[in-house]
């Protein structure tokens, strides 16, 4: 199925599109809310400003996809591959990202309030200034994650791996860290590089 047929069928009311191959296509600003795209390949696809609320993208591949300001509130991204994806300012509030792969993903300024990331891998991810209020990162691999300036109020990092994680300018007083593994940095005075939120 090519992109034109996909969009035509969506416009006609179809919502179940599992196993699609939509690699490296332009779906920016498209409304795909409440769509099932599980097991689909969306690697390197442009989904900037796309509406994907309540969509099912479980076990799909979004590696290196661009999701700048995409709205993924209440979506299912469990066990999906988002490695090296660009999720700057994306809305992932209440999203299900259990066991998702987000290694080296760019999540600067992303909204992850009350998101579930249990068992997810975020090795080397950039979470500067992201909002993780109430997020569940239990048993997540957070090695080398940059949390500079992030909001982690009532976030759960229990039994997570924090080797090399950076917590500059983060209030850790309401962070749940029982049984977390590895050494992390929490240096308030460390310089913070200029924040680049462009998608180019």
TrEMBL record:
Domain of life according to the entry: Bacteria
Cited InterPro entries: 5peptide_repeat, Pentapeptide-BTB/POZ_domain
Listed Gene3D superfamilies: E3 ubiquitin-protein ligase SopA (2.160.20.80)
SUPFAM superfamilies: Pentapeptide repeat-like (SSF141571)
Pfam families given in the database record: Pentapeptide
Coiled coil: none
PANTHER family xrefs: BTB_POZ DOMAIN-CONTAINING PROTEIN KCTD9
The protein's name: Pentapeptide repeat-containing protein
Species of provenance: Leptolyngbya cf. ectocarpi LEGE 11479
